[in-house]
Design brief:
Layout (H helix, E strand, L loop, with lengths): L5 H12 L9 E3 L2 E3 L20 E2 L2 E3 L2 E3 L8 E5 L6 E6 L7 H9 L13 H17 L2 H14 L4 H17 L4 H4 L4 E4 L5 E8 L3 E6 L6 H12 L3 E6 L5 H12 L8 E3 L3 H10 L5 E4 L2 H10 L4 E4 L4 E5 L6 H16 L9 E7 H5 L2 H10 L16 H12 L5 E4 L19 E4 L2 H6 L1 H7 L7 E7 L4 H10 L5 E5 L3 H9 L5 E4 L28 H8 L1 E8 L13
Parallel strand pairs: 3-7, 10-11, 10-13, 11-12, 13-14, 15-16, 15-20, 16-19, 18-19, 20-21
Antiparallel strand pairs: 1-2, 4-5, 6-7, 8-9, 9-22, 17-18
Length: 566
């Protein structure tokens, strides 16, 4: 039997061997290769995280770091998702031990820490922090540090892990220097008489919160928390505590780069404790990324003061025009990436592939089966499923298989020969073919076929000429509209699809995908007034600021004025 830390170390080293995607220096002592030293601001070493030397997380509130000793229940032990055994310990406060968070949120001025009139120098301060932070992330050892740490808590392939700090760094570069203050750009309109002008400005909300899931432990919480700060808010950030150690280290890096530690709070806790802070602290706006059920509860608890990226059963349609052979191979590769990279644990993962019958005749489903068979836990192109157990996944696959006309297309079995803890899922990349008419035959069939399984699972179906209305009915009936892809270069088909669907982030053309949104474009759902966005200036202003109109009327009142009663 392999010693407890051996397999974990092997997976960490897989990332290192795959690090050719970014330049990095290597340190040698006496001719022997060793890992790069962790950054000076870091408190966790991913290469040492184990039962013998678990990582220790800390809460941050009011500029003070608080350890587990501050709480009656002490530290919560969290398991290694690959081999089991305690890997880290994090604070576990009760709902009676978070009054400091509640007070901080409640006492933050409604006018924020800054706005275009108050403390405007903070815009440039935050721009400087972004510049310094991006420079820090450009260091090969810092990039590798975050890649290794991400892989320890959410085991996924090297390129997937390194992608998060890379996108985060590029985004920070985008908002360096004056670009934070540019987010608060005002506009003016001339008045009715001399001295009168009307000016629109962007105002913060005050005490706000960011709650994000496990699947992107750096990119989503980092970008949304910084965005909240940009607009003058004081955010409390809570990440799923299985992975929150990554965001804690990012915050430590920001403080190292000049961010005042009192600008934000950071929380390890369970859901009910966080909920109490939000309600009792009168959270002015919550940015929530996670499940639809919790999103609806938070909407009610906070009386609608939410921005949501709540769920993503995401579809891709393969159009009626058949491309050349090389393009078909590309579409198959992209579809495999969209559905099964990180074992489908992305809110943008491809959940349903609707192929025109001509694509089936060309063997698109067989191509996907071949690609899925090449994925392996050994190189982390298959990952542990952190929110669905193996039994729950199997039950859903079996239920879909029981629908009329359904058949197994890919996979369908649990993984063998692994050490993934039973609290997580371990399953092959899987697809079930369900006829289009079956899904539309009843609400029960539709609900089952469009259940978002946050794991390596998708639904295949086909459609033929004359069935566009059925396809659109199916797509628009779905309750969530986050991402989608329309694979076609037929302009008429593209316009019909784009004009009759409402997905918030949609890719169109022969290279259309559903995943891997870069930092330069909007990513978020549509069709809901609570919809959140990320990345762009429009997303930042929508989520984290509100419009205020200031009408200036400064000229002296004429001596001969005469008012009439109306």
């Amino acid at each position: 039997r392999r010693r407890p830390g051996a397999r974990t170390f092997r997976f960490t080293m897989l990332l290192r061997r795959g690090a050719s995607v970014v330049p990095r220096t290597r340190c040698y002592v006496g001719g022997a290769q060793r890992c790069l030293a962790i950054p000076s601001w870091a408190t966790v070493d991913p290469s040492k995280m184990s039962a013998a030397d678990p990582a220790i997380g800390m809460n941050l509130v009011g500029g003070v770091w608080k350890s587990g000793d501050s709480y009656s229940k002490g530290l919560l032990e969290l398991p290694d998702p690959l081999v089991g055994g305690t890997m880290m310990k994090v604070p576990n406060p009760t709902d009676k031990e978070v009054d400091d968070y509640i007070t901080r949120m409640k006492d933050c001025p409604r006018s924020g820490l800054h706005n275009p009139i108050k403390n405007p120098e903070r815009y440039t301060m935050l721009g400087d922090v972004m510049a310094k932070g991006a420079k820090e992330l450009r260091k090969p050892e810092v990039l590798q540090y975050f890649g290794d740490l991400i892989q320890r808590v959410v085991p996924k392939s090297g390129p997937q892990c390194l992608g998060e700090p890379t996108v985060t760094r590029k985004w920070m570069e985008n908002y360096s220097s004056d670009n934070v203050r540019m987010l608060a750009r005002t506009f003016g309109v001339p008045g009715d008489h001399p001295g009168q002008t009307s000016n629109g400005i962007r105002m913060p909300f005050g005490g706000v919160a960011v709650i994000t899931p496990f699947n992107f432990p750096l990119e989503i919480p980092a970008l949304q928390t910084c965005s909240a700060l940009f607009m003058g808010n004081q955010p409390m950030c809570k990440v799923d505590w299985k992975v929150a150690i990554v965001m804690e280290q990012f915050i430590r890096m920001l403080i190292h780069c000049g961010l005042p530690p009192t600008d934000l709070d950071f929380l390890y806790s369970d859901g009910p404790v966080a909920n109490k802070i939000l309600v009792d602290g009168d959270c002015r706006v919550l940015l929530f990324t996670g499940s639809q059920g919790i999103a609806e509860k938070l909407t009610a608890d906070l009386k609608g003061k939410v921005r949501l990226e709540d769920a993503g059963f995401d579809w891709k349609v393969l159009g009626p025009d058949m491309p050349k052979e090389n393009d078909i191979k590309y579409v198959a590769w992209q579809a495999d990436q969209d559905a099964y990279a990180f074992s489908g644990q992305k809110c943008s993962a491809q959940s349903m592939l609707l192929a025109h019958e001509s694509w089936e005749e060309k063997g698109i489903f067989d191509m996907l089966k071949e690609k899925a068979a090449k994925r392996s836990l050994k190189d982390l192109t298959i990952s542990p499923v952190l929110s669905w157990t193996t039994e729950k996944i199997q039950a859903h696959v079996d239920a879909c298989m029981a629908l009329p006309g359904a058949k197994l297309a890919i996979g369908g079995k649990p993984l063998a020969d692994h050490s993934i803890p039973d609290i997580y899922g371990a399953f092959e990349p899987t697809a079930v073919f369900i006829p289009l008419d079956t899904m539309l035959a009843s609400q029960e069939n539709f609900d089952l076929a469009t259940t978002e399984l946050f794991g390596p699972f998708q639904v295949f179906t086909t459609w033929k000429d004359g069935e566009m209305d059925k396809v659109l009915k199916l797509l628009n009936k779905m309750p969530n509209h986050l991402t989608a892809g329309i694979v076609s270069n037929d302009q008429q088909f593209l316009e019909e699809m784009l004009g009759n669907t409402i997905t918030g982030t949609i890719y169109a053309g022969i290279r259309a995908r559903t995943t891997a949104a870069p930092q330069q474009h909007w990513f978020g759902p549509s069709g809901d007034p609570r919809a959140a966005g990320i990345h762009t200036a429009e997303a930042i202003k929508l989520c984290w600021s509100t419009h205020r109109e200031i009408i200036m009327d400064r000229q002296p009142v004429p001596d001969d004025w005469e008012g009439k009663m109306s």
